[in-house]
């Protein structure tokens, strides 16, 4: 008669998963910030409590055996549920005063971010604002390093992540005011025929989006200048060394160049806009997510879009919607 197995110890399970993921006790210890002996003891205790070996001890690095693989398949939802329970308890115990970690793409963090912080300054809730690129932010959200994320054109495979459309903005062609003044009837085709395209780097989501849109428009410009950020990109545009395809938020992020540049509309279509989404885990931070959506749309409608329209009268009316 088989003796009954003990309930799974979650810390031991976390150690077991770390060994499977990293391929060694040493690497698992480094990942979890504990000693190697603590990992070894946790895995041994798990095997002892479950009454079976979980690793093929003859393989190097250690590999999960059939029992270990079965446990590994079930481990992720168990650990994730435990984290969700802990997060909900923390929220409840703080009675609405919990500090929320919000990750944003750089252009959003630098433009809407300060206005959001100002709008929340009168509340008791504390907010930490992180910025970065969409791929890194989605990984941070998945790894629970942040609580919510504002990203662009995401591809989320985790059904536990809620994706809420936030707003969209149109791509526009950007050139120096001096160049456009010398060609009063210029449109985006004039720019493409006479100037090189100054690009965002392809490792960024906006760089990939611009490249797809440029190909769709038939813009065949050699690769000469590529930048991670809008500020150096606009410095070349303002100097008349090329034109760019950018967005209203990116332009507002580098707004000290607005007196030297102007915009021209680009053809509408499926590739002509950049979409923003708010991401958070299901059943977590629902109330704050709704508050954040309302605040963001208010900031865009009442502050950023009117200021952009004043600085760039040629900006399309639906540039941000």
From TrEMBL:
Keyword list, A-Z: DNA-binding, Transcription, Transcription regulation
Single Gene Ontology MF annotation: transcription cis-regulatory region binding
Gene3D superfamilies, sorted: Periplasmic binding protein-like II, Winged helix-like DNA-binding domain superfamily/Winged helix DNA-binding domain
Domain named HTH lysR-type: residues: 8-65
Superkingdom to which the source organism belongs: Bacteria
Pfam family, one: LysR_substrate
PROSITE patterns: HTH_LYSR (PS50931)
SUPFAM superfamilies for the chain: Periplasmic binding protein-like II (SSF53850), Winged helix' DNA-binding domain (SSF46785)
Family annotation (InterPro entries): LysR_HTH_N, LysR_subst-bd, WH-like_DNA-bd_sf, WH_DNA-bd_sf
Keyword Aminoacyl-tRNA synthetase: no
Coiled-coil region list: none
Family: Belongs to the LysR transcriptional regulatory family.
PANTHER family membership: HTH-TYPE TRANSCRIPTIONAL REGULATOR, HTH-TYPE TRANSCRIPTIONAL REGULATOR GLTR
Name of the protein in its database record: LysR family transcriptional regulator
Organism from which the protein derives: Caballeronia mineralivorans PML1(12)
């Amino acid at each position: 008669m088989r003796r009954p197995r003990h309930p799974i110890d979650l810390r031991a399970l976390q150690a077991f998963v770390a060994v499977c993921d990293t391929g060694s006790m040493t690497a698992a210890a480094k990942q979890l910030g504990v000693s190697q002996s603590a990992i070894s003891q946790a895995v041994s205790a798990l095997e002892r409590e479950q009454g079976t070996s979980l690793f093929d001890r003859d393989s190097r690095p250690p590999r999960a055996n059939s029992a270990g693989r079965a446990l590994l398949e079930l481990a992720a939802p168990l650990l994730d549920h435990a984290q969700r329970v802990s997060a909900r308890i923390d929220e409840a115990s703080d009675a609405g005063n919990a500090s929320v970690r919000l990750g944003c793409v750089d252009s959003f963090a630098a433009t809407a971010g300060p206005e959001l912080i100002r709008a929340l300054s009168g509340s008791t809730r504390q907010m930490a604002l992180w910025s970065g690129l969409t791929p890194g932010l989605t990984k941070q959200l998945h790894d629970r390093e942040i609580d919510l994320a504002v990203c662009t054109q995401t591809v989320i495979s985790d059904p536990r992540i809620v994706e809420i459309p936030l707003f969209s903005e149109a791509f526009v062609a950007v050139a120096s005011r001096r160049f456009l003044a010398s060609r009063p009837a210029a449109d985006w085709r004039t720019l493409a025929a006479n100037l090189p395209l100054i690009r965002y780097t392809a490792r960024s989501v906006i760089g990939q989006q611009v490249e797809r849109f440029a190909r769709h428009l038939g813009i065949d410009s050699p690769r000469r200048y590529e930048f991670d950020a809008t500020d150096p990109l606009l410095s070349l545009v303002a100097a008349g060394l090329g034109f760019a395809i950018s967005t209203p938020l990116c332009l507002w992020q580098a707004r000290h160049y607005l007196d030297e540049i102007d915009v021209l509309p680009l053809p509408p279509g499926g590739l002509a806009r950049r979409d923003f989404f708010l991401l958070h885990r299901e059943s977590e931070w629902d109330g704050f997510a709704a508050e954040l959506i309302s605040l963001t749309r208010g900031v865009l409608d009442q502050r950023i879009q009117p200021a952009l329209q004043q600085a760039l009268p040629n900006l399309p009316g639906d540039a941000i919607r």
